[in-house]
Amino acid sequence: MTERQLANSQLGFLDYDPAPESATIARLQPSYGLFIDGKFTDPAGHEQFASENPANESVLATVAQASVDDVDRAVASARRAYTKVWSKTTGTERAKYLYRIARIIQERARELAVVETLDNGKPIRESRDVDIPLAAAHFFYYAGWADKLDHAGFGADPRPLGVAGQIIPWNFPLLMAAWKLAPALAAGNTCVLKPAETTPLSALVLAEILQQAELPDGVVNIVTGDGATGAALVAHPDVDKIAFTGSTEVGRLIQRSVATGDKRLTLELGGKGANIVFDDAPIDEMIEGIIDGIFFNQGHVCCAGSRLLVQETVADEVLRRLVRRVEQLRVGDPIDKNTDVGAINSAAQLARIQELSAFGESEGATRYTSSCVLPEKGYWFAPTVFADVAQSHRIARDEIFGPVLSVLTFRTPEEAVAKANNTNYGLACGVWSEKGSRTLWVAERLRAGVIWANTYNRFDPTSPFGGMRESGFGREGGRHGLEAYLNV
Ligand code: NAI
Ligand code: MG
After folding, report:
1. pLDDT, tens digit, for every residue of 45-90?
2. N or C: at which end does the chain have fewer Cβ atoms within 10 angstroms?
3. Environment class of residue 376 by beta-carbon count within 10 Å: exposed (0-12), middle (13-18) or buried (19+)?
4. pTM of the predicted model, to two decimals?
5. CA geometry: angle 160, 87, 140, nearest 5 deg
6. DSSP notation for 127-144
7. DSSP 470
8. What is the largest CA-CA distance in the chain?
């Protein structure tokens, strides 16, 4: 019996035995090359780096560090495939490949979920039930558009852009690859994708899936590496479009770098989402919504509901119940099917969360941290709620990108809207109320790309997603997501 189980049994509570998924299902290779022109190849400089499991710091596999020359080879391969094959492939044919990819993702879903959880640290429950099914859903959805582009509202014969360079972050590795690749391919572009350096493995399994689907060589190329590889892709003169998801800081660098050329650009950057709770909202659902809004994926979510705005009349009760619920979250081994909150993705991200949280205390907020016991190895941060937060506090302004919630209060809907909009970001917000008219009144006034009503963190391939202000521009998902890959 573990200490926690012992404590629970003394209190008369039931507890769960560990229910680990098998890590061997991942079937990882010891090392991976770059996926260029339909084959895995060695990087020119033979440089490799390791991807580790953030839950225990073990090395999962080594991957290639792509140099400027390697990026150049990948772009040349994408250009050849575009000119010779993909631009001559009909929409109906492109759709068949996308459907095939979607089906193989479903067939290999269990393996992909384990790979994602090992490489990223997210709970297997989330990779199994959210990341992988949604990735397949994006390929299915855009397969449906590939032969109907004339009906997408962008003119009679919308043309692709050519070669798309796509740079993705580590928080939803396979899902972000699907968000980027599916609409680009449906619209008739070829791609060079660069996964994040801490989570390259599911993209490399996806490369195997593309081979299995017999996607023509060079239509998708996957180059692993760090920021330098990303920068080389952004700077490459033969890339027609850059799609980036990641930090606002790097987004700024990219925007500057493409400013003088004619590359198209979409940026999906950070956020500081407000979850606004009125006193008439059903409290049980709302507590679960707040918890999901900030602790889903350890809070490594660009649209996380990291600022809770709660109406003063219910603030004490909401805070009491939140703190109790946080105490019940099961933090630990991500591969365990009972785990709610997994590992922080990297030592660097953990350091950033620790640094920003320390400001919470030094600036005068009241801290509640789960008393859960954290594993000794790996990168961990106990779920944390800050009350008595003022708008000027750094924890209310900066994106923490971790399991940390800041609670602020308001009295009137006007005040809620003013506080919610008092941010440099504008990605997503949530509104909780029984009254539809009030929800709509608030939603109309919020300056954010996505507004959820009585729910949070809901994603669907048919729905456009994207931000305003420092959260970036351009939309992914839905019909809108096609526009970023068409010459319109
Ligand atoms: P990052 O923005 O550095 O990394 C995202 C991707 O961009 C990675 O693939 C990286 O290799 C690549 N990259 C880095 N520098 C580049 C450059 N100069 N040119 C082209 N590509 C480049 O994000 P990082 O450092 O992992 O996280 C820092 C903070 O950014 C986090 O604490 C979080 O606040 C925010 N973030 C937001 C994300 C979102 O989805 N909105 C995702 C990841 C991070
Ligand atoms: Mg990793």
Report:
1. 999 999 999 999 999 999 999 999 999 999 999 999 999 999 999 9
2. N
3. exposed
4. 0.96
5. 70
6. IIIIIHHHHHHHHHHHHH
7. G
8. 70
What per-residue string of b and e applies to 257-279 under the rule 16 or more CB within 10 Å gives b? ebeeeebbbbbbbbbbbbbbbbb
Q: From the CA of 343, how far away is ligand 1's center (Å)?
A: 18
- Sheet containing 190-194: order of strands: 39-41, 34-36, 220-222, 190-194, 163-167, 241-245, 264-268, 472-473
387: its two tokens: 């009350």
Q: What is the distance between the alpha carbons of residues 30 and 63, in angstroms, rounded to a whole number?
A: 9
282: number of Cβ within 10 Å: 12
Are residues 61 and 28 in contact, defined by beta-carbon separation less than 8 angstroms? yes
Strand residue runs (E) in 223-331: 241-245, 264-268, 274-277, 307-311
Q: How many CB atoms lie within 10 A of CB 237?
A: 8
Instruction: Say yes or no: CB of residue 401 within 6 Å of ligand 1.
Output: yes
Please list the ranges in the chain whose pLDDT falls under 70: 1-5, 7-8, 13
- What are the residue ranges of helices labelled H in 272-311? 283-295
Q: What is the DSSP letter of 448?
A: S
Residue 69 tokens read as: 């020359």
| 171 ligand 1 Cβ < 6 A | yes
pLDDT tens-place string over residues 425-438: 999 999 999 999 99
Q: Token pair of 181, please?
A: 């690749």
In contact, 114 and 25? CB cutoff 8 Å: yes
Element (H, E) at 450: strand 450-453
**Which residues keep their CB under 5 angstroms from ion ligand 2?**
51, 119, 198
Cα separation of 291 and 279, whole Å? 17
Length in residues, the chain: 488
> How many whole angstroms separate alpha carbon 367 and alpha carbon 21?
34
